[in-house]
Design goal:
31% of the residues lie in helices and 23% in strands. The protein is of the alpha+beta class and 310 residues long.
Length: 310
Amino acid sequence: MFNQGNYRKPSCRGWHESALYERIARVPTLELARSLLRMKRWSIVAAFLPLLFSASSIATSVVPMTVKTMADHSGQVIIGRVEAVRSYWADNPRRIESEITFDQVEYLKGAHPGASNRRKLVVPGGTVGEMTMRLASAPKPKAGDKWMLCLLPSYKTHPVVGVWRGAFRIEADAAGIDRVYGSGGQPIEGVDSQGFVKLSNSRSHCANDRLTGSLGLRVSDRNDSNSTSNAIAATEFRKQLAPILAASKDHKLTEPAGRRVAITFTPVPMRGAAGQNGNALSASDASRSRRIREAVPRNIDAGLRRMSKP
């Protein structure tokens, strides 16, 4: 049973032991580690360390939530079609954000007076030119997509409750029936007896959930021909959610949910930061800082050598 990833995981036997995952997840990190071992300048090593550790990361960690918990945290629950996505550079700190425009918006919860059927949502990450920034496992809406989103009243990290847990993609099957999928493409079967969102017990979708969040890859299984039929119809999913949403916390919003909270970043100079009122470091603090600086290269070298072993 996997405990990481979206919602409560079904049994996913075997896929995580496959050579495919080992090649994808480990080789880039090992090659980068070996390359760094050949570099003698610690300034170069320090510059590449964030890339090294991000290459081995799997997904953003979010506490599992029942549908009731997600509903209580949601200021609004909406269904809408993505009309456009505009990514741009923002400042303080320098970062990429994306403005998503939704049309044909329907409110399952939190329709405040004057709520429009067309709205915009700003999310972290996106692509500008050749530069891409993204929050691991966060939903990546594209123009034409249809989504159901559980939106926080306001946010500092991401507007969707649980980053990806409260995001559901709605896609029509061959018969034209709208069906529900997780943000990574996993078929949703509905709400289970314990109140969690139930995913399809599909090996390829379990692997896809993990690899999509970490590396942006997709996995297909030739033997998994019934994945579409496993996804619950959107109308049935709404029926299951309706009583939960009706009994959930009312945030009494007077404006659209998903508002970003402004955060002020203040740079702090490293020199003298440990001293009081800008005074010089004490002898003990200076000695401790020196020992830390002397130990870092040896620790990094030992860590890289351990990671470079096949």
